[in-house]
Design a protein that fits this description.
- This protein is of the alpha/beta class.
- It is 33% helix and 19% strand.
- The strands form 2 sheets. The protein has a 7-stranded parallel beta sheet with strand order 9-10-8-11-12-7-13, covered by helices on one side. It has a 6-stranded parallel beta sheet with strand order 3-2-4-5-1-6, sandwiched between helices.
- Helix 2 packs across helix 3 (60-73), helix 6 (134-142) packs parallel to helix 7 (164-171) and helix 8 (187-195) packs antiparallel against helix 11.
């Protein structure tokens, strides 16, 4: 059996090689520990044992990112399918299951279908598994699915999420594994992100160095000015823009397209009904504008969070807002820029020391 390893550090490769092929497994780790790349590698390794594998995500944009990674790894026989959990559940059910108000399907209907003796046991790998509800993992148990979950409890951004304990309990017999280290961020980015951390203890800072994150006070169209400058001076870099609102996404897109059309910025929105603004080329350098809800699991050379003033009225001690900024900040590999409009810094950021977050 030939295994191709893609961008793995020695400790990541050891963790992957140490996962038994049988049984259920939960692999937890902080941002930058490599969960997504390991999820793709795990799916391919399981497929090489001769069984079809489904690699699942909550986010469609993360699905696109993982599909590119799986394609780079192989296998050529398409024995690994990368799908959103919603799409896979509908396909498995055989028809469109009834929905509930939280946006998921009626779990009673799905659980009743799983009780059918004719149901086959799938092999599943789940990335960002904390964003799927506990009922999903109970369904996996009822299906006798061989399930590997990669998750981080400090990155929950959905209302219907699971704790790590709930994942283990609902899967039944499940072995837990912990990932350490941060292979994505610089020390400076990780130190700022640690300011927003909501979990126990403090994240271990990586050794790689880079510029200190910067907070900008934007005038009208100032965010677009910064993005155009970054894209023109860093033509081979990926620049992720993580916006709080759909309005900000399209405002930035229109401004950049009008003033610097050669940059060809991309935008993703889950509300798009067609391929426009739905399918991205994440391997292409340049500007990608996404909503905060779609940023999980992604990474970019440079990240810009342009509208932190959107959170000015939010309690800065709120776990929800801190978790959101923790996720957004840790998307950046090399540079991180935050911006606001108005006369005063948002309370969440005004608390941060200038050594950790430069101004201007």
């Amino acid at each position: 059996m030939t295994i191709t390893y893609l961008d793995l550090a020695p400790d990541q490769r050891a963790e992957l090689d140490g996962l038994p092929f049988d049984g259920n497994h939960l692999v937890s780790g902080p941002p930058g520990s490599g969960k997504s790349i390991l999820a793709a590698q795990r799916a391919v390794m399981l497929a090489l044992t001769g069984t079809p594998v489904v690699l699942l995500t909550y986010s469609n944009l993360l699905r696109q990112s993982l599909a590119g990674t799986v394609h780079a790894l192989g296998p050529a026989d398409r024995s690994v399918r990368v799908m959103t959990a919603h799409r896979w559940l509908a396909e498995w059910y055989g028809a469109t299951p009834p929905r509930t108000e939280d946006g998921w399907y009626d779990w009673d209907a799905l659980h009743n279908r799983a009780a059918d003796p004719a149901s086959t046991a799938p092999t599943l790998v789940v990335d960002e598994g904390q964003d799927l509800p506990p009922e999903f993992y109970l369904l996996c148990r009822m299906l006798h699915a061989r399930t590997t979950v990669f998750a981080d409890e400090c990155q929950r951004l959905t209302d219907t999420n699971s704790t790590l304990d709930e994942i283990v309990r609902n899967l039944g017999r499940c072995t837990r594994h912990d990932l350490d280290g941060n292979h994505r961020n610089t020390e400076q980015i990780a130190e700022l992100a640690a300011h927003f951390h909501t979990g126990k203890g403090s994240p271990v800072l990586p050794g790689r160095q880079g510029p200190v994150p910067r907070l900008h006070r934007f005038h009208e169209r100032g965010a677009a000015d910064l993005l155009i400058l970054l894209a023109q001076t860093q033509p081979n870099k990926s620049i992720g823009v993580v916006a709080a609102t759909k309005h900000m996404q399209f405002s930035l897109l229109g401004s950049i397209q009008n003033r610097a059309p050669r940059l060809k910025p991309q935008l993703y929105t889950s509300e798009s009904k067609g391929n426009l603004y739905r399918n991205l080329d994440l391997a292409r350098p340049g500007i990608v504008i996404v909503h905060r809800a779609s940023a999980k699991g992604l990474s970019f050379d440079t990240v810009v969070i342009p509208d932190t003033h959107h959170d000015a009225a939010t309690d800065p001690t709120s776990a929800g807002i801190r978790m959101s900024y923790y996720v957004m900040a840790t998307r950046a590999r090399q540079e991180l820029h935050l911006g606001y409009e108005g006369d005063t810094e948002p309370p969440l950021l005004s608390q941060v020391d200038r050594r950790v977050l430069q101004r201007g």
